[in-house]
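Can't paste images in this forum, so I'm doing it all in text. The chain is below; anyone willing to post the predicted structure tokens underneath?
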Amino acid sequence: MYESREHLQTLTEIRSLMERSSKFLSLSGLSGVSAGLIALAGAFFVSVRLETSLLAVFQSSRTGDYHTNMNQPDVRQFLVTVALVILALALLSGTYFTVRQARRQRQTVWNQSSQRLLWAMLVPLATGGVFCLALLQYNLIWLAFPATLIFYGLALLNGSKYTLRDVESLAYCEIGLGLVSLFWPGYNLLTWAIGFGVLHIVYGLAMYYKYERTLTA
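Text version of the structure:
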């Protein structure tokens, strides 16, 4: 009886080690928080630039002026520029916190697990990027807001099997919010801010207190 329990415990430990070696577990919750704050700052900047509130920035869809306003060259260029700046800042902050987390765990960031995770997420993200470029080409920029949420959620879902399973919950939330945004065009910026801002902050804080707090204590 004792030997069987000992063997079972050994098998459990081996399975745990194999699982950890096949997954990238150095994702930092603080990277999610920083990305969320950057996204909220960007959404606020857009709302100020367009001289309206975050809640009603795109409510002009009810009057029929929505698509005309969105497709003005200066508005499109401004939104694309802000999106690129947000993406760059989020990637920089995420990389910083992830590298710091990996060093605390005495692990390397660039390994087979991180490569599999990157490739799994890259395919949906690249597909979504090309899709959004097509939307811009055909003056359908308002659809780019829900499209970014949906493809980002698909990327998270595809990559969740190579990292913390908690990422899967965030993926479903992003996809669901993107689908809702498709039928709620008057509030595209609001749903985008919730998806990339609020959800990232909530997820990041949850991951920080669940996995990282003991390391920093």
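Residues 24 and 204 are 16 Å apart (CA to CA). The two ends are 40 Å apart (CA to CA).
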